[in-house]
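#help-structures
NK: newbie question, is this the right format to request a structure? protein is 3-oxoacyl-[acyl-carrier protein] reductase
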Amino acid sequence: MFQLKEQIAVVTGGAKGIGKGIVNALLAQEAKVIVLDKDVEAGEALARELPIDFLNLDVTKAEQVSQVFSRIIEAYGRIDILASNVGIFPQKTLENMSEDDWDAIFSVNLKGTFLVVQEALKHMKKQTYGRVVLTSSITGPVTGFPGWSHYGATKAGQLGFMRSIALEYAKFGITVNAVQPGNILTEGLIEQGEDYLKQMKATIPTHTLGEPIDIGAAVAFLASPEARFITGQTLIIDGGQILPESFDAIL
């Protein structure tokens, strides 16, 4: 079960971090993976490391999104899976946040999700099959964290977007779901510093941080043909972080 052999999978933001974990999980299930990323250097390095195809893409540019997906259809004939994973998370308190700060994160995290998903669904609808999995977060939909109010707003917004389009496309054999990672040990998390990592470990019942492959495994499941009866749902992957009512519960 859960084999993705000969499935055409597109992963945005797949060159590193959680995206790379998703790529590895899909490859393990024998999918053909196309990585779309703005970071050309990282994308080309990944293409040398793994059996993937890489295309440069800025998800905020509608015309570029359309052109890239047309190239994929021309080369492969279909898109079975979209893992919409691109996201940024600059830290900024509300007091110090500018309008440009707000617009920048919404452009990538929400507008980028909209453009990529809309384009993929055009092709999935024609083939009456598709799996869309968004990378949201526990921050915003479930929890909050100082300095990430703009980030949390985008991640909560992704889930509202997901639920409505899941209804719009269910009759076409297409499912739309999301994963909500907790603290995953990526390059971006490491940049927050050792004190932050220690603080996060202390709040997680497993006392460990997740790894990108933990998210990838969940995405691979939701992307499988067997997950056909799951749509408009989210899966929290956080080592139990949101469960405790107090620190006494995780000593």
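mod (FA): yep, format's fine, and the tokens are attached above. The first strand starts at residue 8 and ends at 12.
NK: thank you!
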